[in-house]
Design brief:
Blueprint (H helix, E strand, L loop, with lengths): L3 H21 L7 H20 L4 H14 L6 H6 L1 H27 L9 E4 L4 E3 H5 L4 E7 L4 H5 L1 H11 L4 E7 L3 H11 L4 E4 L5 H5 L7 E5 L5 E5 L4 H9 L4
Parallel strand pairs: 3-4, 4-5
Antiparallel strand pairs: 1-2, 1-5, 3-6, 6-7
Helix pairs in contact: 1-2, 1-3, 1-5, 2-3
Length: 248
């Protein structure tokens, strides 16, 4: 799954588990081949640390723990016993990472306007624009998804509930598939979707403009193109944003 939080989770998990195992098993040895693999993995995942503002001390702890702690055979019961420590270590860092990302997104979206005249195809091949969908409405709620994305598919029932609840209140709910019309139409028919079912244009211009690097992602756009919300479909902030529009 292409999810920024997944990389943070993975990095912190390896960091803590690796460090704890290193302390418990100081005699662990690493073959040359294993060392190269761990080094490459550490560099790959470690790179993501910098995206979230973690300092060099935490990064180095992660890399050392990964190389030393995961070198030997990890027994399931040992990892399970570390669950509470892993959660206690990880939760505040995850929350801090989310808070930083929200602030970055708010600054980015403050003056951004989505091109409401951009032509978008429905899964059935018809042409429309966000402006067409927004006429006479309070806003358009776009759900960016893909058929390969497990979380996206598991949230489909919630999306359908949103469409039924928000539609009569002036919010147009629309699915925005990031793959192609065939994939989108297959899901529409299978789930008997009756609300707007769109396919993002080639090159994914909206995803690039809105900095969508992980899905599922939900975007609330005002009729003038202003981005009112950009985040996870189940984020409480979406509820408060809709409330500000008089939609509850």
């Amino acid at each position: 799954m292409n999810n920024r939080y997944f990389f943070v989770f993975l990095s912190l998990l390896f960091c803590l588990v690796g460090g704890l195992l290193a302390k418990e098993d100081k005699a662990a040895s690493v073959s040359k081949e294993d060392a190269e693999v761990l080094e490459a993995l550490g560099a790959s995942v470690g790179t993501n640390f910098y995206k979230f503002g973690f300092d060099d001390t935490e990064l180095e702890f992660f890399l050392k723990g990964l190389r030393k702690g995961l070198a030997g055979e990890v027994k399931e019961e040992r990892v399970r016993s570390m669950g509470p420590r892993i959660q206690a270590f990880m939760r505040p860092r995850m929350e801090a990472a989310k808070a930083r990302e929200r602030e970055e997104e708010k600054k980015l979206m403050a003056n951004l306007r989505v091109p409401m005249d951009l032509e978008i195809q429905t899964s059935e091949g018809e042409q429309t624009t966000l402006g067409d969908l927004a006429k006479g409405k309070k806003g358009v709620l776009l759900d960016f998804w893909a058929s390969w994305c497990g979380p996206c598919m598991s949230l489909m029932p919630e999306l359908e509930k949103k469409a039924k609840k928000l539609g009569p209140k002036g919010i147009v709910v629309a699915g925005m598939n990031t793959e192609n019309a065939g994939k989108a139409e297959s899901v529409r028919k299978k789930r008997k979707i009756e609300f707007s079912w769109l396919v993002e244009p080639n090159g994914r211009p909206l995803s690039q403009m809105l900095k969508i690097n992980s899905i599922p992602r939900m975007i609330l756009v005002a009729p003038d193109g202003k981005v009112l919300f950009n985040g996870h479909p189940m984020d409480d902030e979406l509820v408060s944003t809709l409330s500000d529009l008089g939609v509850k």
